[in-house]
Amino acid sequence: MRLVGRNYRMVVLTAPWFAAVAGFMAGLQPAGVEWRWFSFHPLLMTLGFVGMMANGVMVKKLGGYTNTKIHAKLSLAGMFMALGGLYVIYTNKEWYGRKHFTSVHSKAGMLVLIGCVLVGTAGTVFLHPDWGVSKYNQTIRFWHKWLARAVVLLGWCTCFAGLQQICYDNMFMAFYGLPLLALVPVTVVP
């Protein structure tokens, strides 16, 4: 689904704001807790996967040299935010002496982050419009596009699954999850 004109601007401008608000509110879960070091984990993951990477996908769908470069910058910013989220949760678990990578959420998160780094590195090395060594290779472009979309979608599912572990408010879960479903047609679907 291609976004054009006013609809495009609305979605592209709304996604980062939604990500910031939802990520901040996710950091305050379960309800009643104060902002703490852990709170940066859901904030950074939501900003990275929803605010930056989703916008990167939507901008790339517009095509062209400038949009491709904006896509790369947004996607890499999202990847670094997500890596920051990993740092936060890793140090938080170290602080409290908890084991790492024991839940499905944490294992899926690690898989998604590895996928982010691999897809981002491949895009930068092979497909960058200025220096990509295989920027015209349609096979690499195909796999980059589809693996990146899978990583973003799995990232959203992982964010939602992590929130389910700490949030018991169905209204907030709907506030967080329904916009993600609404973004699927304009990001993951061609």
UniProtKB/TrEMBL annotation:
Membrane topology annotation: Multi-pass membrane protein
InterPro entries (UniProt xref): CYB561D1/2, Cyt_b561/ferric_Rdtase_TM
Compartments reported by the entry: Membrane
Gene Ontology molecular-function annotations: metal ion binding; transmembrane monodehydroascorbate reductase activity
The keyword Lipid metabolism is annotated on this UniProt entry: no
Keywords per UniProt: Electron transport, Heme, Iron, Membrane, Metal-binding, Transmembrane, Transmembrane helix, Transport
Gene3D superfamilies with a match to the protein in the record: 1.20.120.1770
Statement: the UniProt record of this protein carries the keyword DNA damage: no
Source organism superkingdom: Eukaryota
Cofactor(s) needed for function: heme b
Cytochrome b561 domain boundaries: 2-190
Transmembrane segments: 40-58, 70-90, 110-127, 147-166, 172-189
CC annotations in GO: membrane
Protein's recorded name: Cytochrome b561 domain-containing protein
Species in which this protein is naturally found: Leptocylindrus danicus
